[in-house]
Amino acid sequence: MSRRVFLDTSGWLAVLSSREALHEDTVRAYRDVLEARRGFVTTNLVIAEMHALLTRNRGADAALAFLDALKQDAAHEVRFVSPALQDNAVNRWLRPFGDHAFSLTDATSFEVMRELLITTALALDNHFSIAGFQRLPATQ
Prior knowledge:
Elements: E1 5-7, H1 9-16, H2 23-35, E2 40-43, H3 44-58, H4 60-71, E3 76-79, H5 83-94, H6 104-116, E4 120-122, H7 127-130, E5 134-136
Parallel strand pairs: 1-2, 1-4, 2-3, 4-5
């Protein structure tokens, strides 16, 4: 079992936006992971979602600054979704859980977590719980 934590778009957005209802709890959980040197794992699909949200809400310069900062941050590992990983995600998560309307980003996130034995995600998205993973912050 991995000590690392998966970082979902919903968790990342809650860290960056004080307008999010669980902002303070999520920031605390995020900092706890960093201070414990557990490290975060995410995917390029999550990064694409974050870039789109930041571009829309804060502008292109802020979104580019996010990408630049991420590239230099060793505490955040980005896994790229290969065709094989995407196929596995579709067959393991989207087809069997069709009644839950998981997104492709969700499904590939779950598959990365499964492959890396990651059990916890910084995520406000209830789909992570439905898929059998623990979520941070714990107050949810």
